């Protein structure tokens, strides 16, 4: 046992003596050194004797002394709360230098009693380590500072700094904040994307070739190319690229610095444009200083004056100017020096002594709002002036020739405006020659197509040929004048050429109206009339069919129990339908008048009673607008005259209605008078009517449009007041049919006065008028049983109309079957006996006319067939009756029409059944 202890002690002593770290023993009571090994003494630069009995804390550098921490840890070690205490402090050497050391301390205890014996301290020199750490820390601080400065420079730089990966796409690895202002992208939007994504597609191949060439040392340091901004705009850029490679020369990354050179590029382009404008301009262009000396001159200036550039420069312009124009030139140059651009004509003297007529423009050269020079732009106008003089010399002779021609001659510019017109042209067009100059041709003369339809504005063959510089051979066409009359003309068009350029055209025409042309125009008009009649028939059907459903259902609705609000709604539907029907009838009336198929009735007319009823018709509307309505009837007008009361009323309603419509305050007055002039014979008289209002008035230059069909004077007025534009046109035609005339007098804001006259026959008591129909009084059955016992078939392709008719007949006791076309009606009649058929005219598969013809082949008398049609013309009625139909009702139909048909034909049907 003692031998083992001896060996252990010997081993400890060897470790203690030869250990590379400092080992020492201190009193745990007072902290004084008791024993120190050589390594510890060497570390502190003192002998053991010098250190013994000194305090442990005396070797610690004052700034590293932490008494409270030391006491706390010593106390915890003494009480066994922690086995060891470790810290890093600086120690003081004997020579005053410091060294960094790691200190480990622990309490050594008696193995048996656990009593504290002494404090064991180990110390290791870590000065080199600490210095290395400090160097590393300093380097890190320098690196961070460098990074911070680089970041500040990158973020504040207007240039775009980017780091690209070495991959094929040159992917963005870092992008500075300048990407926002330069390209509109946030840096985060660009990082990770291909370095080519924002380069203009046309420039990508060039940029890629540049990168390859530069890596091989074959390309310049910089490249200019285009970038695309996020908003799509183009940015010119200049880029300097640095390539980072590893030790083996392999590319690691690319650092690119890009500058926006858009502004300088634009300045470069502007400079190129200016240089091109100056050097390549065929006109003479020169820049002069404020004293009039020529500083620069282009080739055009040399050619114009005959002087070389050396002869022109650094000399005043005086020697170039014709002496008679020198003062004028100096005046305009001085005005240019004041900053006012000048344009004038002068004579230059060519080097050969010849005078050249020129047009000169002087433009001040401004730098920072200060005139520093003058540009002179000079063009040779000698030929143009001579041409004008020649034209002026010829103008008198031309006027004599043109005035003596029987053909109309009109000169047109390239826009189709009239330059000149001879008296024959003005006479044929019924216009004063002075009123034609400068006005578009289509405003004075409208060219018609062969179908009788006007060509669209700016689209006539004449105007198209003028614009294209083409000639038109001699041909014929119908022209319409401003007053609505027309004539057949033979015309030809020749372009006006001047030095190889088209300046306009000359239109030569003559009136070719003759029997042959009249017949041809008549045939064309008849063809157009047939086409128009077919169109109106189709339009009538397409409008009346849905209108029939609306008004019929509204009438049925009125016969049901309705409250006051519902009845008001139904009445609005009926009134609206009547308004639409009125417009439709206006169009059909106008068509009849134009075709010459309007026949006037001749019956008794009470002018007073009729005028009073018209005034009463508009009294409510006038009261709503707070305007007065007056009528004055001459006492000389007889109590009764003979004429067409319906058409006279229609004229008055149109004119009085317009007067009320366009008058916001004031009054509307109607005056009726009679003329006893003997020129109308003993059996006729002339009535005149005047309708005066205090409304908005009509401009004088618009009044000729009033009586044209579909004419609206102003779109704004049309939007406010509405209307078809046919009312006055129809009124004019009706007045003319009655042997009279219509006109207007008006000024803007002064109201209007319309006047019309009509020739009527005097009433003679001995004339007895017999009605065309029998006024027999029949004892009619109750309406609810009108159709009882009658088998009825409805042939109608419109579901609304068939349902409406079925509902009306059901109320009259009828039982109905419904089919959708004529073929179905024929097939069903072969299987079932019907007494009455309501047959629509326009149906798919087989129409009503064809179906009736088929039915009459096997059923000549019964069933009775009543046509249902939207074709409201007399010809349509005749066509229905000729094919075997016995009656005719037009859309929109009412229950009164159905009752009439039933009252007319039910007795006949019953009589045929008895027989």
What do the pLDDT scores average to?
81
Could you give a short account of the major beta sheet?
Answer: 7 strands, mixed
Beta strand %: 25-35%
Described by the principal axes of the CA atoms, the overall outline is elongated
Structural class, from helix and strand content? alpha+beta
Number of strands: 33
Task: Return residue spans where pLDDT drops below 50 for at least 5 consecutive residues.
Answer: 718-722, 766-780
- C-alpha termini separation: 163 Å
Estimated helix fraction? 25-40%
Our count of helices gives 27
- Give the C-alpha Rg: 57 Å
Please tell me about this protein's structure.
The protein contains 27 helices and 33 strands. By secondary structure, the protein is of the alpha+beta class. Strands 22, 23, 24, 25, 26, 27 and 28 form a seven-stranded mixed β-sheet that branches. Strands 17-16-21-20-19-18 form a six-stranded antiparallel β-sheet. Strands 2-1-5-4-3 form a five-stranded antiparallel β-sheet. The radius of gyration is 57 Å and the shape is elongated. The protein starts with a helix and ends with a helix. The relative contact order is 0.04.
């Amino acid at each position: 046992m003692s031998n083992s202890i001896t060996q252990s002690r010997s081993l400890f002593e060897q470790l203690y003596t030869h250990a590379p770290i400092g080992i020492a023993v201190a009193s745990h009571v007072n902290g004084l050194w008791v024993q120190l090994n050589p390594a510890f003494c060497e570390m502190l630069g003192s002998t053991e004797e010098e250190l013994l009995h000194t305090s442990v804390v005396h070797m610690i550098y004052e700034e590293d002394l932490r008494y409270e921490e030391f006491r706390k840890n010593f106390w915890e070690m003494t009480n066994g709360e922690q086995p060891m205490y470790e810290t890093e402090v600086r120690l003081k050497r004997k020579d005053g230098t410091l060294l960094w050391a790691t200190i480990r301390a622990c309490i050594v205890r008696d193995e048996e009693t656990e009593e504290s014996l002494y404090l064991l301290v180990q110390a290791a020199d870590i000065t080199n380590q600490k210095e290395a750490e400090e160097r590393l820390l300093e380097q890190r601080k320098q690196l961070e500072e460098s990074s911070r400065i680089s970041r500040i420079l990158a973020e504040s730089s207007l240039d775009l700094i980017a780091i690209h990966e070495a991959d094929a796409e040159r992917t963005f690895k870092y992008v500075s904040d300048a990407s926002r202002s330069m390209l509109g992208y946030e840096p985060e939007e660009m990082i990770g994307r291909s370095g080519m994504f924002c380069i203009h597609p046309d420039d990508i191949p060039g940029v890629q070739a540049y990168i390859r060439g530069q890596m091989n040392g074959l390309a310049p340091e910089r490249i200019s190319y285009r970038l695309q901004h996020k908003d799509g705009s183009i940015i010119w850029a200049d880029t300097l690229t640095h390539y980072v490679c590893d030790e083996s020369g392999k590319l690691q990354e690319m650092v690119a610095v890009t500058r926006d050179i858009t502004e300088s590029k634009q300045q470069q382009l502007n400079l190129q444009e200016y240089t091109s404008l100056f050097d390549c301009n065929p006109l003479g262009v020169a820049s002069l200083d404020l004293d009039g000396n020529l500083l620069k001159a282009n080739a055009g200036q040399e050619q114009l004056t005959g002087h070389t550039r050396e002869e022109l420069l650094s000399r005043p312009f005086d020697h170039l100017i014709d002496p008679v124009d020198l003062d004028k030139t100096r005046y305009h140059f001085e005005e240019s020096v004041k900053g006012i651009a000048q344009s004038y004509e002068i004579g230059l003297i060519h080097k050969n002594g010849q005078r050249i007529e020129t047009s000169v423009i002087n433009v001040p050269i401004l730098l920072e709002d200060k005139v520093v020079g003058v540009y002179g732009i000079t063009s040779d106008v000698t030929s143009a002036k001579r041409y004008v003089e020649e034209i002026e010399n010829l103008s008198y002779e031309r006027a004599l020739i043109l005035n003596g021609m029987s053909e109309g001659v009109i000169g047109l510019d390239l826009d189709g405006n009239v330059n000149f017109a001879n008296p024959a042209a003005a006479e044929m067009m019924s216009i004063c020659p002075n009123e034609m100059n400068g006005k578009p041709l289509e405003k004075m003369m409208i060219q018609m197509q062969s179908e009788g339809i006007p060509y669209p504005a700016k689209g006539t063959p004449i105007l198209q040929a003028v614009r294209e510089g083409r000639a038109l051979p001699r041909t014929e066409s119908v022209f319409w004048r401003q007053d609505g009359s027309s004539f057949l003309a033979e015309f030809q068009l020749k372009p006006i050429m001047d030095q190889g350029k088209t300046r306009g055209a000359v239109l030569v025409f003559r009136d070719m109206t003759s029997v042959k042309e009249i017949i041809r125009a008549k045939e064309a008009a008849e063809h157009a009339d047939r086409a128009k009649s077919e169109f109106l028939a189709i339009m009538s059907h397409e409008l009346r069919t849905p209108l029939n459903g609306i008004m019929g259902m509204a009438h049925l609705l009125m016969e049901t129990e309705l409250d006051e609000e519902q009845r008001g709604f139904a009445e609005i539907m009926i009134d609206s339908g009547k308004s639409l029907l009125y417009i439709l009838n206006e169009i059909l009336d106008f068509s009849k008048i134009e075709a010459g198929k309007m026949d006037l009735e001749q019956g008794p007319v009470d002018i007073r009673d009729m005028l009073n009823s018209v005034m009463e018709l508009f009294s409510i509307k006038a009261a709503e607008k707070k305007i007065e309505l007056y009528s004055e009837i001459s006492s000389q007008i007889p109590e009764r005259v003979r004429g067409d009361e319906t058409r006279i009323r229609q004229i008055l309603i149109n004119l009085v209605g317009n007067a009320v419509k366009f008058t916001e305050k004031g009054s509307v007055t109607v005056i009726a008078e009679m003329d006893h002039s003997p020129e109308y014979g003993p059996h006729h008289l002339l009535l005149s009517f005047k309708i005066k209002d205090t409304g908005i008035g009509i401009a004088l230059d618009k009044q000729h449009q009033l009586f044209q069909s579909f004419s609206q004077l102003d779109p704004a007025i049309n939007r406010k007041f509405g209307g078809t534009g046919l009312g006055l046109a129809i009124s004019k035609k009706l007045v003319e049919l009655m042997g009279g005339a219509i006109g207007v007098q008006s000024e803007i804001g002064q109201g209007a006065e319309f006047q019309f006259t009509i020739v009527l026959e005097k009433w003679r008591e001995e004339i007895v008028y017999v009605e065309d129909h029998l006024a027999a009084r029949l004892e009619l059955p109750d309406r609810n049983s009108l159709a009882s016992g009658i088998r009825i078939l409805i042939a109608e392709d419109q579901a609304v109309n068939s349902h409406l008719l079925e509902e009306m007949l059901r109320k009259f006791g009828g039982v109905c079957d419904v089919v959708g076309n004529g073929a179905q009606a024929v097939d069903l009649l072969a299987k079932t006996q019907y007494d009455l058929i309501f047959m629509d005219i326009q149906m798919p598969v087989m129409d009503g006319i064809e179906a009736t013809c088929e039915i009459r082949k096997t059923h000549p008398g019964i069933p009775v067939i009543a046509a249902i049609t939207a074709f409201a013309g007399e010809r349509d009625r005749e066509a229905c009756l000729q094919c075997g139909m016995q009656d005719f009702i037009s859309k929109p139909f009412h229950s009164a029409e159905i009752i009439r048909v039933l009252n007319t034909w039910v007795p006949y049907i019953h009589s045929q059944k008895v027989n």
